[in-house]
Every structure is written in C-alpha cells, then in structure tokens.
Amino acid sequence: MRYTIGRKYIFIHEQAKLKPKQNMVTPFPCVFKPWEDEMENQRILVLTCAEHHKVRNTWAKPEDEPDCDGFIFLDAEGGKWYNQYPTASYGQVDDSADGRIMWSGWDKEVDQRSDRFFMFVDLSRKLESMSRGIRDFQRELGNCRANREGYDAKTVAKYKGDYIRFRDTLRQHRDRTIQNAKAKSGCFDIKLEPWRPVMKDGTRESFPDILKTSVMWTPEDREELETEA
Predict the structure, then answer these.
(1) pLDDT at position 12, please?
(2) Pairs from 114-119 (Cβ < 8 Å, separation ≥ 24)
(3) Is the predicted pLDDT of residue 74 greater than 90, yes or no?
(4) H or E element: which one contains 160?
(5) What's the predicted TM-score (pTM) here?
(6) Cα torsion through 13, 18, 23, 26, rounded to 10
(7) Where are the beta strands (DSSP E) in the chain?
(8) What are φ and ψ of residue 107, in 5° steps?
(9) Could you tell me if 96 and 115 are in contact, meaning their C-beta atoms sit under 8 angstroms apart?
(10) Of 25, 127, 114, which is closest to residue 75 (Cα–Cα)?
(11) Separation CA 76–CA 74 (nearest Å)
C-alpha cells in the first residue's frame, strides 16, 4: 500500500503569484514555474496515517466491489484528512489523487487563511516531480530541440540558455522546499536517492533516473535506511 498505518507523512501546499492571474486564491495545487512565478508561502502539514479502507472508484457501479485504497489521516489536533476517501478518483492515465489530501469537513465557507481550506500534496510526490523536471531539462541541453530542427546558432544558444535557467531555478526551488519542510516538520532529514526496489528473486535493482524521497524522523531512521540500501 502507498501509506502505512501509524506512520507520519509530510504534505505541502504552495501558494504563489502565477502569471497572468497574480492574485487568485484557490484551494487546489498550483503549477508553479520558479523561473517566472513568485512563491508566497509553502504550507507544511505533518499527518499520521490512521485508517485504511477499501473504496469504490467514482466511475464504479453500485454493485461493484470496492477495489481501491482510501486513507484517513489525523493532524495534531485530531482533525481528519481524506486521501482517496470515501471514494477514489482516477483518470485514464492519471493517479495524482493518490498523493492528495483534503480536510474531511471542507466546504467553500472554510476560512481561506486556514490550512483546512487547501488541498495538500504528498511531499515525496512533489520532490520527485521536481527531480524529473530537472532531469528532463538537463537531457534537453544535451539534445536541444532547436539544434535537432536545424535552427541557426543564435537560436540554439537562446534555447540552451533557457533550459539552463529552467533547470537551475527548479533545482534551487527543490532545495529550498526540502529545507523548508525540514524546518517546519521537525524531521531529522529528507533524502533523495535512486529508487532501488527489491525484485521477485530477492535482489535489488537501481534506477538512477527515478529518485525516491525518504523522510527520516530520527537518526535511527537514517541508520535503518542505510542498512536497507
């Protein structure tokens, strides 16, 4: 399962001034581009996974058996937050809701200054998404589209300059996000490393292009992680 009962997890919501709609306030996650948008605030939640339930997909028929996983999280005050609960939402090629939570009592009357107004995203998914973007910008530098399509040298240089700026500002934003999450959550460390799953035969394989986020709450968590690796 994607979450473990009793374990703490970090979730994030980014509030930013996005071009061209500078002052729009929405509970939903924004598509933040650090090379042109202005970050206003990163809200951080530490929640404990409390319950797991089998739930139906929103497209399921009433007679269908529940075959999706839904979770209930608790905040420090005992408030409930839902992840794919009481029903699960999936697109044809989209499972992003697996990493999103909202307060159980959300409605449009919730105070917009409160964390409970916003939808939060699993920090691990957020960091892994940023890492994929950094990787893709770096790859584009080595095989620039403008160069492939036969543009002149000046245009190619401009494209490469843009990709360098995109890559570097996204990397800086990812690093700031990690530091902010550590400071606000009180965790011991947050580590990004290549995914090394255990295969069916018991061996491990490494996938350098897929970075996995590990949140360590104590020094012992780091020792356990290094032992597993």
Answers:
(1) 95
(2) 115/13, 115/43, 115/45, 116/79, 117/27, 118/13, 118/15, 118/27, 118/43, 119/13, 119/27, 119/28, 119/29
(3) yes
(4) helix 153-185
(5) 0.84
(6) -40
(7) 8-17, 38-57, 68-74, 80-83, 87-88, 100-103, 120-122, 189-195, 207-216
(8) -155, 175
(9) no
(10) 114
(11) 7
Q: How far apart are CA 30 and CA 6, in angstroms?
A: 29
Tokens of 161: 């300059």
Q: How far is Cα 193 from Cα 195, in angstroms, rounded to an integer?
A: 6
Q: Give me the amino acid identity at 214.
A: S
Close Cβ partners of 135 (under 8 Å, ≥ 6 residues apart) = 209
3-state DSSP assignment of residue 141? helix
Q: What is the pLDDT of residues 144-171, one digit of tens each?
A: 666 667 778 788 788 888 989 999 999 9
Longest dimension (CA), the chain: 62
Packing angle between helix 123-142 and helix 153-185, nearest 10 degrees? Answer: 160
CA–CA gap between residue 136 and residue 25 (Å, rounded): 30
Query: What does the DSSP assignment read for 81-140?
Result: EEES-SEE---SS--GGGGEEEETT--TTS-TTSGGGS-EEEHHHHHHHHHHHHHHHHHH
Domain ranges of the chain: 8-187
pLDDT of residue 50: 97
Facing residues of 48 across strands? Answer: 8, 74
Instruction: State how far the Cα of 186 lies from the Cα of 122, in Å rounded to an integer.
Output: 16
Cα(195)–Cα(15) distance, rounded to whole angstroms? 29
User: Do residues 165 and 34 lie in contact, with contact meaning Cβ atoms separated by under 8 Å?
Assistant: no
Asked if residues 127 and 213 have their Cβ atoms less than 8 Å apart, the reply is yes
What's the CA gap between 212 and 206, in Å, rounded?
11
Q: Are 85 and 55 in contact (CB under 8 A)?
A: yes
